[in-house]
């Protein structure tokens, strides 16, 4: 897939960009709201929006499109913007060639995880706080009339479908959250860490990883059935 727009990095500069790549839509800022107006990709229109909840916007998003397909990534950062920015910079690059399968998606996720882990190790002495950042990762790829979905973290991907007869839009959930409140996730963590009785702790009325956070970060849990094939009509 040839790219037509670079990663979207709202929050890195004070001034919103007034220019855009071909078809990408214009990046605008309105208070704490960052958004792109309607743009074009290989299969139709798109728009994006982020609301800045913290002093620094921790989240990243991107859309890459060309004649062969369209890639959309949403990265919900935690503890700082570093992990989300790294994923935005490298995950798409780690997809090899134009072929998309469950295996190539897993490989791209794994290479990105390994790359960020190596970066944390390299900068441990100067930037130890880098190790405390993480990100959820939600990816959709449309290729040859097939939609591939990959999810890691507690974000949720929802597909809106319009009934051609009634015009009614139906929401279809395409991913399952990786959250410590989910029984299966707690069981998986316990199996992965049999020597750590406090890998999940019930604190403040919810289950938390190490008693701290609910979400399973990008580099804390292996991939779980990340891709689904849906025919797009």
Can you characterise this structure?
By secondary structure, the protein is an alpha+beta fold. It folds into two domains: 169 residues, Phosphatase 2c, domain 1, CATH 3.60.40; 36 residues, no CATH class. It is built from three helices and 14 strands. The strands form five sheets. A five-stranded antiparallel β-sheet has the order 4-5-8-9-14, with helices on one face. Strand 1 and strand 2 form a beta hairpin. The N terminus and C terminus are likely disordered.
Topology record:
Layout: E1 27-30, E2 33-41, E3 44-51, E4 60-66, E5 69-75, E6 77-78, H1 82-90, H2 102-122, E7 134-135, E8 137-143, E9 146-152, E10 158-162, E11 169-173, H3 183-192, E12 200-203, E13 206-209, E14 229-231
Low-confidence stretches: 1-22, 218-233
The level-1 CATH class of the largest domain: Alpha Beta
CATH architecture term of the largest domain: 4-Layer Sandwich
Strand content: 25-35%
Sketch the topology as an H/E string, one letter per element.
EEEEEEHHEEEEEHEEE
**Beta-strand segment tally:** 14
* CATH homology group of the largest domain: PPM-type phosphatase domain
Distance between the termini: 21 Å
State the helical fraction.
10-25%
Compact description:
With 233 residues, the protein is α+β, with helices and mostly antiparallel strands.
Features:
single chain, 233 residues, alpha+beta, Phosphatase 2c, domain 1, 2 domains, five-stranded antiparallel β-sheet, three-stranded antiparallel β-sheet, 3 helices, globular, disordered N terminus, disordered C terminus
């Amino acid at each position: 897939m040839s790219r037509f727009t670079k990663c979207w990095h709202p929050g890195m500069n004070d001034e919103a960009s007034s220019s855009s790549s071909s078809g990408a839509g214009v990046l605008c800022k309105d208070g704490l709201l960052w958004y792109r107006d309607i743009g074009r990709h290989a299969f139709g229109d798109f728009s994006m929006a982020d609301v800045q909840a913290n002093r620094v916007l921790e989240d990243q998003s991107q859309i890459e499109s060309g004649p062969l397909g369209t890639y959309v990534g949403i990265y919900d950062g935690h503890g700082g913007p570093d992990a989300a920015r790294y994923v935005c910079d490298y995950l798409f690059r780690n997809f090899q060639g134009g072929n998309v399968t469950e295996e190539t998606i897993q490989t791209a996720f794994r290479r990105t995880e390994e790359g960020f882990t190596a970066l944390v190790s390299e900068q441990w002495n100067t930037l130890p706080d880098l190790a405390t950042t993480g990100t959820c990762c939600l990816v959709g790829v449309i290729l040859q009339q097939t939609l591939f979905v990959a999810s890691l973290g507690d974000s949720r991907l929802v597909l809106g479908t319009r009934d051609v007869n009634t015009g009614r839009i139906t929401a279809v959930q395409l991913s399952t959250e990786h959250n410590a409140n989910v029984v299966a996730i707690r069981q998986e963590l316990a199996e992965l860490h049999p020597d750590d009785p406090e890998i999940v702790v019930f604190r403040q009325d919810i289950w938390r990883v190490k008693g701290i956070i609910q979400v399973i970060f990008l580099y804390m849990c292996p991939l779980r059935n990340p891709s689904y094939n849906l025919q797009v009509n």
